[in-house]
Amino acid sequence: MKAVKGERHDLYARFAELVDGRVPMEPRDLLEPVPASEPVSLDEVEPVASIVRRFSGGAMSHGALSAEAHETIAIALNRLGARSNSGEGGEDPTRYRDERNSRIKQVASGRFGVTAEYAAHAEELQIKVAQGSKPGEGGQIPAHKVTAEIAQLRGTTPGVSLISPPPHHDVYSIEDLAQLIFDLREVNPEADISVKLVSSVGVGVIAAGVAKAHADVVHVAGADGGTGASPLPSIKHAGAPWELGLAETQQALVANGLRGRVRVRVDGGLKTGRDVVLAALLGADEFSFGTALLLAEGCLMVRACHLDTCPVGITSQRPELRAKFAGTPEMVEAYLRFVALDVREHLARLGLRTLDEAVGRVDLLRQRRTGDANADALDLSSLLAATGQGHARYVGQPVPHSGDRLGTLLLAHGKAAISGARLVEPAYQVTNADRAVGARLGGAIAKAVGSAAPAGRVRARFEGSAGQSFGAFLTAGVELRLVGEANDYVGKAMSGGRIVVSPPSDDVGDPCLLGNTVLYGATGGELFCAGAAGERFAVRNSGAVAVVEGVGDHGCEYMTSGTVVVLGPHGRNLGAGMAGGEAFLLDPDERLVNDDLVTLVPLARDEAERLFDLLERHVRLTASARAALLVAEADRIVGRFRRLTPRAELAERDAAAEDRLSA
Is the dihedral angle over the CA atoms 85, 88, 94, 97 positive or is it negative? Predict the structure, then answer.
């Protein structure tokens, strides 16, 4: 076998021999392929260039990895025609328009660093519901790895741990998932949508729901992994082998007639061509590599990723260690090409000419007898069960996305503001069938000018009851004014612009105008609402400014930056997981505040000035009678406000004050 990019194939061959011949550790070690026919010539088998396009990088964030290590993987996979995965820590916008861009960008509703610009520069948007090695803990970064660089990308505070919630905090149901898929198709109609699931019992049912929610890819993640950020107990004790989840997913999709319209991808410790071929026979169309790519660029497996002491600068944010990084894109390219060469040899021995011919052919697998009594006692028949008469692999039958009628109309009107310095002021009647209105315009602006405002401005007016995700992925230069009410997810992932919601003139009492999970994962922009909102207001807000006149339970949950003003009652568990930002509360109930991470303090003079500046703007924009009364009696009212702030921020202030005194 000839060398690839100057690297020695004999080293890979020795590596593959060690991995493929190891003492059984995983279910795949107890499987062996059975030839479909006589071997074919290697010249007849699908070429390396075609095979590597099925490969992708695992979701390893910039934060878990250093910028150098993260970008090296992206460059390598882009050159191969494969796809690297950003992970859920955002990405430096300077990468979006060159070969450092991650083609797969991970989101999960309110995960870190998700903006319209981020979404607009993806070829695939991956929704992370769970991950095998650390279910629900993705994006978690210890405080010492949250440098100024990482904090800027993630909209948080340097030196403060980033807590990642369980998966149900992002997606409660298949309906929520379907809405998120819809939102992502609106902000980037050209991107594939994948959903990452954990290999576990019952994953097949979830995979069927994912397909019915109109995803393009079902991604099954196995237990191996956790590079860069995962706590040790998760690496050692969480998740199941990918073989189990993949087999169940394949069987469920075939049984429900869904397999032909979604691609199935797998990851979790893939290392060699044999791993890839076995995964294909069990039902995978595509294959993702994580730890193996780090090894290819120089990882020594010290297993100190979370300590920020990586001696080769791969999983460290410390400049002196990052300077030691010596990996190159060519090293990663060589490894993946060798894997593809290995795949070709296995296919040839099986009498197959393409990977497509291998996908779903469980009839070409049998349990291998090892001579080990314990290993041979395992019954793997459930993995090798026949999968019925339906399609066993993807055949290109995705469900078309028709798009939101009103969102498409708003984009058509708003294009004049993107191409020229025009003020566009359309007006519409909106109904709850109109979903993600504004996302398509936000994506188009972000693709054209990035995070900056376009040359013109859009000031759209709406009357009625808006559907889910009104103003999602909104960007600078756009204002949406709604007279009426809106459903859940208003301002989801907005990064700029303004949303103003006011009650109709004949409304009486204290109206509730917004649904649940408003400003979910917002990174910027403004929201002014002359009424109350539902539960989980500003969850994972990392930069937006909002004034609202009441919120339900779990307000400001997992918030990392931004400012929230609540002029009315609030529900229980306020500030749970809040690591940054601030909230100004009128007459707060201390019993309902989650005091593990946050506390209530009186306002300083400059804070009171900022608060009443916001209230004056709120009055101008919404004509709120409640806010007008507060502004008129500011001197008397100010003492009733309290500032909700993370305890970590107060500790940092106290430490800084001590330093000043000692100096």
Answer: positive
pTM of the model: 0.94
Which residue, 468, 590, 431, is CA-closest to 176?
468
> What residues does 65 pair with on adjacent strands?
62
* One CATH from 3.30.240.20, 3.40.640.10, 3.20.20.70, 1.10.760.10 for 9-376: 3.20.20.70
- Specify the DSSP element, H or E, that contains 319: helix 319-322
Distance of CA 421 to the CA centre of its chain: 34
CATH architecture classification, 423-662: 3 Solenoid (2.160)
**Long-range contacts, 461-464 (Cβ 8 Å, 24+):** 461/425, 461/426, 461/427, 461/428, 462/427, 462/428, 462/429, 462/430, 462/437, 463/427, 463/428, 463/429, 463/430, 463/504, 464/429, 464/430, 464/431
Q: What are phi and psi for residue 48, nearest 5 degrees?
A: -55, -45
The SS3 call for residue 542 is strand
pLDDT band for position 167 (cuts 50, 70, 90): very low
Take residue 627 and report the two structure tokens written for it.
């806010």
Q: What is the pLDDT of the chain when averaged over all its residues?
A: 91
DSSP designation for 190 = T
- Closest to 248 in 3D by CA, of 261, 260, 264, 271: 264
- Cα–Cα distance for residue pair 436/152, rounded to 1 Å: 27
Residue 398 vs residue 599, higher pLDDT = 599
pLDDT at 229: 55
pLDDT on residue 651? 64
Q: Is 80 exceeded by the pLDDT of residue 239? A: no
- Asked if 442 contacts 410 with a C-beta cutoff of 8 angstroms, the reply is no
